[in-house]
Amino acid sequence: MANASLNHEFDRILAREEAGLNRPQKGSRAFRKLMGNPLAVAGLVIFMIILLSSIFAPILTAHDPLKINLREMLQEPSAEHWFGTDRTGRDVFARILYGGRVSILVGLGSSLIAAVIGVGLGAYTGYVGGWVDTVALRISEIFMAFPQIILVLLLVSIAGQSLLNLIIIFVLSGWGSMYRMTRARMLSLREEEFVQALQSFGVPTLKICYKHILPNALGPIMVNITLTTAMFILAEAGLSFLGLGVPLSIPTWGNILNVAKDIRVLENNWWMWLPVGMVISFFVLSVNFIGDGMRDSTDPTLQG
Amino acid sequence: MVRASRAALIGEPAEGHFFMLTFILRRLFITVPMLLVISFLVYLGLELTPGDAVSHMIDPEAASRVSSEQYEQMREALGLNKNFVQRYAIWVSNVVQGNFGHSLSGGVPISTIVLDRLPATLELSLFALIFSTLFGCVLGTISALRRGSPTDSALTILGMIGVSIPEFFFGLVSILIFALHFDLLPVGGRLIPEYDSYFDHLPNIILPGLVLSMMMTAGVMRYSRSAMLDSLSREFIRTARSKGLPEWRINIIHGFRVALTPVVILIGFRLPTLIGGSVIIEEVFQWPGIGSEFISAVRGADYPLVMSIALLSVFAMLMASLIVDVLTALIDPRVRLA
Q1: Is the ipTM of this structure higher than 0.90?
Q2: Are the C-beta atoms of B284 and B208 separated by less than 8 Å?
Q3: Largest CA distance in chain A
Q4: CB pairs under 8 A between A and B
Q5: What does pTM read for this prediction?
Q6: How far is it, in rounded angstroms, from Cα B257 to Cα B266?
Q7: Which of A263, B16, B198, B256 is the least buried, fewest Cβ under 10 Å from its Cβ?
């Protein structure tokens, strides 16, 4: 019964194909699957809206995020200042837009650099093995033995606060998991038959490793990059909230939220911290939706 | 690299204990050098940061009256004029005995500070651990039993929202609503001076504890959902159903019990990360634990304190992962370290 209807369905598809009715499918299969996931699409839309409005901040607002205007201190949201002004009269909306530039740069930038290091190293050592592999593995274990936030704060106390230092610190704390994941994938992929074929043709090791094996591991790597980006954006916000992240003179999402430590601001001036907290939450949520959608579309073992 | 042990393959029960012992020894063989390397790096960091123990022991106002000879004598008394390796050896033997040196601010022994602050962190972490496990398991099980339903998708999305909101922002909003607006719970702090019995400060832990639990629930929920799905697809469930057992008995007694094992292991693994996880929450709620102490040490460039707490957290992490590995191997004989 079920078989009959299934056969019927197959016949129908075959007939459509023979009649040339099926559109030639564009893009990769994983990408099409991602586009069929409503949460991932919603995530992409929110992500693009926040990213583009940060990039085009000068077009969207006429205010300078750094300009102090003591005549317009602590104003509530109005047509002039959409999200009001802070204690020194700076426009909060402009600060969120410009702050997004730095926060996204830190989050995305650190996770991309961490990926280049972790994936580059993991692909090579996972493929060649031997003592190089052991040494790299032990080094990554040292970094991963620390709870993430403890390691980040420890490095902040040694290196001091600056934008560049923060990116370096995030890279140091994040490359380990990328390395471990890539290495694990390489360990199983290097046993595949196409690798043996390439080796017997005398293809150089580096070429086999990066050009032929690595692309097979790209799915989980991309997922890891998105989820790490989300994690770093939260970490930047948390650190800057503590006053230990990006120096306070540079507007970032975390630095804008920093004022909410003052309980009077928390109680009376909601516009100074609520909108930016929502923006961070939405941005991270959108990145998580994208990452989750990518995991579903690239990992065939996860069909739950 | 998971390999079936010989004992498990051939089925020799007598050898089981022996394998377990070698497994634990081999695991220790990795953990101890790791701790030594990390302690060396931490010590290197301590040496490279400005100031030494003597310069911090002397009162700044009295510093001008201390002659360089006296200074040298003090350095010698503390063993600071020995070479680097010797100093490291002295430091390690002190640390093993629980002597971490002194904090730069106030000169209090670091072990005293840690012992003073640890109970608060453990209290908060334990609270969050219990509640997040409860919520996570219940919600994850519901999600798995109603797989594909609107309840399942709603819970999944809720879980993602949970991991996307910055924890301190969630904490601030909860302070605003429950402490400032409705005045139900205190804004922060832990002990009220006159009342120091445990139940007197119960209201203080509710807000930070629940915020921390909510943040952790998402992970447990996701994990217990997939563990439950896995367990429900096994054959003993079909057997139970064919026996005509009521559905709730199949799900709870047979399904959930099997799903619980990986979840318990996950929770064991989370224990040390809780120390890291509560750092920011402690600061938001002025909870006087290790986390807020660590942050103020970082702020005040109190390097000995920063390094000691970091080293202790690494120790906790490594010990927990050791215990988790041993537990996993005990429960599941297929898992052995290659």
Answers
A1: no
A2: yes
A3: 79
A4: 119
A5: 0.83
A6: 15
A7: B198
